[in-house]
## 1
Amino acid sequence: MKTKRLGLTLICLGTAGALASGTVWAQSKPLRVGMTLSDIPTTSGQPNGGFEGYRMTGYTLYDALINWKLDDAKGPSTLVPALATEWKVDDKDSTKWIFKLRKGVKFHDGSDFNADAVIWNLDKLFKKEAPQHDPRQRAQVAGRILSLKSWRKVDDYTIEFTTHAPDSTFPYQTTYVFYSSPAQYEKLGRDWNKFSAQPSGTGPFRLEKLVPRERAELVRNSNYWDAKRVAKSARMILLPIPEATTRASALLSGQVDFIEAPPPDFIPRLKSQGFQISSNVYPHIWPYFMSFKEDSPWRDLRVRKAVNLAIDREGLIKLLGGFAAPAAGAVDKSSPWFGKPTFNIKHDPAAAKKLLAEAGYSDSKPLTLKVMVSPSGSGQMLPKPMNEYIQQNLKAVGINLELVTQDWEVLRNCRRAGAGSPVCQGVHGINNSSATVDPFSAFGRIYSSAAIPPKGFNYMHYSDPKVDAMVEKANNTFDEKKRDQLLGELHAYLVDQAVDVWVVHDVGPRAMSSKVRGWVQVKHWFQDLAPVYVAD
């Protein structure tokens, strides 16, 4: 099966150019976006809803110290200066990083962004005794910046960070932390609920209206600090539409202009009626993360390999209309971190049955696995038909797969709490899409024993001293090529141990009206909505 990676034809903005930096653009039609989420992602600073939340109310309303380059559909996304203009590790102490902050940046309420604002926000997230501490925001980001130990103000526009140990991946971790206005928080009576309705960040959009579970209306921040990224749309409306066919129908009927994850069976119809379809492979894995706790059958390597070999990935991709790529590990084979694993993940039901028999399972003693799944969610693709397809694959080799369907946020809460926690309701594993955008996201936060909840995202309680040593060695390597080689060795080991069920990589299909302009689908989870608008 040839994977479809359709490129959206990019349309020159020509006549849609700004009259001058910060002035109002000519396009007045709102951009209406149909999300896969069932609710508006939180707006107080650290969005929930996974990386779709980051796309919708994260990088629209806020900025990180370091952002991602999101304007090139062909090359890999790289780090770019944002609220920090430069950063470097200390020459004498590799646990210390110096960040220089951008001068002249204003929050939406007109107050200044500076070192005091950075300290205040970090205290908000990571100091429980701070009066502005918000445990809800902390829950969304704590597992994404595990290396951070302490922080201090050097001067009004310089911050020093200290990590627990030398970590060359630390700059990547800072991309997940957004900065809210301390002045707005004070103005609203130090109430995060009120702040959510009237947030103040530094991003290219401001929030004008919020109706939970119904809509969020964002308007252009004409005074955005980056003149090249001033929003092209005067207004963007976010609409939660978790059911895929309902999203597609909303697009066909003109109720929205842009949707995430159109169902494959709708795509031919959409294309025939002039709608634009775009896709691009990105650092994503659609897996099952399984428990390694004492009572779990997943502790048996034969079981882990059998499940991986039982899945017909090419058949699943056909079900998805070609909009996916088969997974042979956590990262794609084109990644410099893929390495040279010896376990070849493919569809081999005979080998799967043989391994299960060796592990002591049979028709009279079948293996039963219970997995929590969601009906929708960020990066979840089309979870219902996908999980049901895999359920049939596993049944064919003698495995009973029980699917426990819960809301996306319940599933994410289970992942943060870890295997065996009450919120996980006795399941053996979870179907939770995961990002492999950087070394820390791909490996350290998932497979290191230091990331076992509540510290990080190692839901599985997976603990292997060899993996911990390999992660530490990679973190200590500041030469990128050498680090890539070490990560390849780590990934090969994980694949040979069949740690997870790696199914497919998403290519992120989107569908939009023929009047939508400015969309560039990059090879990343995050996408930039600031350049996108609906032509008059």
## 2
Amino acid sequence: MHFLQYRRITGGDIRRAEPGVDVDLPGLNPNILVFRSLTKDTRRPTRLWLTNLIRMSFSDLGLSDEVLRAVSDAGYSEPTPIQAGAIPVVLMGRDIFGCAQTGTGKTASFTLPMIDILAAGRAKARMPRSLILEPTRELATQVAESFATYGKYHKLTKALLIGGERMNEQVRVVDRGVDVLIATPGRLLDLFERGHLLMNDVKILVIDEADRMLDMGFIPDVERIVSLVPKIRTTLFFAATMPPEIRRLVDAFLMNPKEISVDPPATAAKLVTQGLVMVSHRDGKRPGGGQKEKRAALRQLITQERPRNALIFCNRKRDVDILHRSLNRHGFTADRLHGDMVQSLRTETLGRFKTGDIKLLVCSDVAARGLDIPEMSHVFNFDVPTHSDDYVHRIGRTGRAGREGRAFTIATPEDSKYLVAIAAITGQKIPMVALEGGPAGKTDGDAKPKAETKAKTAAPDELDKPRRGRRGRGPGRGWKAPRPEPTTRDVPVKGLGDHMPAFLRTAPHQKSK
């Protein structure tokens, strides 16, 4: 990969600078280093000046031979801009604030140098030497897999502390001592309060996806965890967006950090082709209207695009279940993923999706961060995200590792305010696309036929069946059992043989002669 390397400068007009001449920019923060890809518009003003085109490799970053061999075995030879900027600084022991869009390789930018730093030394019982905080279980599991991949030539021990798993097994691993502790904030504090964990020996603290933690309400837990680790440490802070609250946390947690920014915050991936499908409906202006029409549009999009695999995002867990059942009812191979599922089922579902057994995965925003599936072809936003930052992370699941991807959003007229917010944060409007055969139909196909139509097409035997109640638990209100037919003469009675008592020979309602 070629990328542009910028050299720190002190002032002047960048647009009129000549090669080989230093340029001054007033008010430049000397701790900021910015990289910009060759595909970006180099005419835009920037605080750092282009010096030369280079082709770097991981061997130029100061990593050990064992780590380089593991990286080569994984199929990588050239670092991404965030990796080229962060790895040498981490090896120097400085604090880092890395801000880069999703899919740029932030995980390897701290795992690779941490392996070399922790190679010397040994962990003590219940006292991890490094701590990595992740907002979701899936992202924590992925980071653990990265350490296993890149650290296979080292004898580092690691532990994964996430909810939904048996705590006794996690406690046994921590008791033996671990070099790398990867955890979600809730489970980490749970073990600490039970006395199974001490954080007095943490030398490297990594806070990954900090903006996602802010959205999920984990910041109070993160602040408490930071207060428990030693003040003399190396802190690595990574985020994809930079709201004011994130800037406050950087000032509170980090000491003289080096800022490494790849593209402006909340920039959508350039390799992702975006599209917007507007759907009209007759549900009025109530929130959540047009679900049937949106489901019809989604099915039409899937048929039109023919994705190799795709994530379908919904805003609510309830809608995830409904859409999952709808897609399977119409012949699509789909599964679901959201936070209410047990961890074992979530892990199994993700494994089947990565192996290709599942083509479509309907999910909530729990999958918007951390899922690294390089060959993801499509992302569908069944609901427009209410937080504009989430849009960037959703579509960032495709177009990874230099591959192209496609992302489509299905919206109704009531979603216009969210679309405006997305355009404001990404700097561009989502282009409109038309479905083949015109707009999505007004009918969904999920709705059940009316009672009259059902009565006309039902079999004769079904017409006599009692109408069931609203939840299918029994007859509906007002239903009366039909009057039994009168007993006829000479009908044999079970259990009485050929003998028929006289009082049974005449029906009760008939008069005897």
